[in-house]
Amino acid sequence: MLEKLPHAVGEALSKVRAGSEKAAFHTLAEHAPDRIRVTSPAFPEGGPIPARYTADGEGVSPPLAVEGVPTEAAALVLFVEDPDAPALHPFVHLIAWNLPPRDQTLPEGAFASPAGEGTRHDLGRNSFLKDGWLPPDPPTGHGPHRYLFQAFALARTPDLSAAPGRSALLDALNGNVMAKGMLTGTYERT
Fold it and tell me: How many other β-carbons are positioned within 10 Å of the β-carbon of residue 121?
């Protein structure tokens, strides 16, 4: 959808960004130990996300691995945000809020997306108000965007309604994060 914005509009907005300091990893969970390891065989930490996982490709969710989840965790949350979106808050690409609290490998296409139904997970609303993976889709000319794949181990199972949004998820994380981890991928349209 954002690929249709004219390049000049993307360039004009290139300095307008939500900011990584507003991401969940750096706000509500800032004091939780950073001991969960989030990786992907599709891209390295800080590296480019292959187009296959974006709006320019098939748009499936990338494969991920989560390790170091504390054994006493009650739930695991995966929360993907774009802090470089030209918005007041980071753009939400995925909320998976009641994953089993253990180390796990999530295969390519694990989450519902425009490319398919994925595996059944408790999903929240992304910034387009859909339940599932919202593929990266930055405006042309806006520069590189970072995508923060944040994992949170929770002490208590979150009390959330079906398909919670960003605000409800942040409320559920507040004071409930035992451990966290993050993988950063990038994507840019030139």
Answer: 19
